[in-house]
Amino acid sequence: MSPMSTTLRRTGTVAALATAGLLTAAPLAFAHVTVHPESYAKGATDGLLTFRVPNEEDTASTTKVQVFLPTDHPVLGVLVTPQAGWTARATTIKLKKPIKTDDGTITDAVSEITWTGGRIRHGEFQDFEVAFGQLPDDTDQLSFKTLQTYSDGNVVRWIEQPQKGAEEPESPAPSLMLTAKGTGEDTSSTGTGTGTGTGTGASGSDSSSSSSSAAKESTASDKSGDSTARALGTAGLIVGVLGLIAAGFAVVRGRSPRS
After folding, report:
1. Collapsing DSSP states into helix, strand and coil, what is residue 129?
2. Share above pLDDT 70 across residues of the chain, in percent, rounded to a whole number
3. Is 56 within the bounds of a domain?
4. C-alpha 65: how far from chain center
């Protein structure tokens, strides 16, 4: 066997093993209960949180999901989206310290949401949606401890809080990062107005419009230049091919016997 064949065979074996490893590890990564999006801006309002619950058991179905909302940094105005086949029950508590908002003083908040009545079977997942009125602005992260109950009575406790810089725990709680306003993955309705709230007035709008126009002109110019380059390249290729064909005919004619 040639050295080249041996190298190719080894490369193919390594690639196959790497692919198998990825496929084996993938179910482990997706087996966790997670919350989406992964981040929001601090104090975001009128948003939506989606708790994704996969079934990780081969012979049992998920029949109950309990999500515990933090009470030290409460989520205000929680509403549960109806889920076909599931019954949701929200538990509220009195806050130790009432929270003042533009709509008044809030004295209670949802501390737990329990979904029952449905089934998440092997190889399936279920999304549970929760709307909120306002997220806290005095913390960088919210953890939603979750209990997942199976039809065989087994309860998986997703309650371990990930630590910054440390490896992910075995049973991490769904976590939501809260970023500075305007830098989160989803800022909801906060920071979207005009005037002093965002620091952009009419001049900011004109600047944005000018930048957009310049960008469009630049893009059009680039596309035009790119099209011209492609056309010239294609023409050159055609000329080259015709030249090769002509040269081939010349060789054939040169080799033909004289009459």
Report:
1. strand
2. 58
3. yes
4. 22
Q: How far is CA 72 from CA 39, 68, 99, 251, in A?
A: 19, 12, 12, 88
Residue type, 38: E
The amino acid at 195: G
Whether residue 110 lies inside any domain: the answer is: yes
Helix, strand, coil % in the chain, rounded to nearest 5: 30, 35, 35
Q: Which residues of 184-216 are buried (b: 16+ CB within 10 A; e: fewer)?
A: beebbebbeeeeeeeeeeeeeeeeeeeeeeeee
Q: Give me the domain span that covers residue 168.
A: 32-189
31-78 per-position pLDDT tens digit: 799 999 999 999 999 999 999 999 999 999 999 999 999 999 999 999
Q: Is residue 17 part of a domain?
A: no
- Per-residue pLDDT for 205 more than 60? no
Q: Could you tell me the CATH number of the domain that includes residue 55? A: 2.60.40.2230
Number of domains making up the chain: 1
**Number of residues that this document lists for the chain:** 259
Nearest to 148 by CA among 61, 59, 42: 61
For residue 257, being part of any structural domain is answered with: no
What distance in Å separates the CA atoms of residue 50 and residue 6, rounded to the nearest whole number? Answer: 50
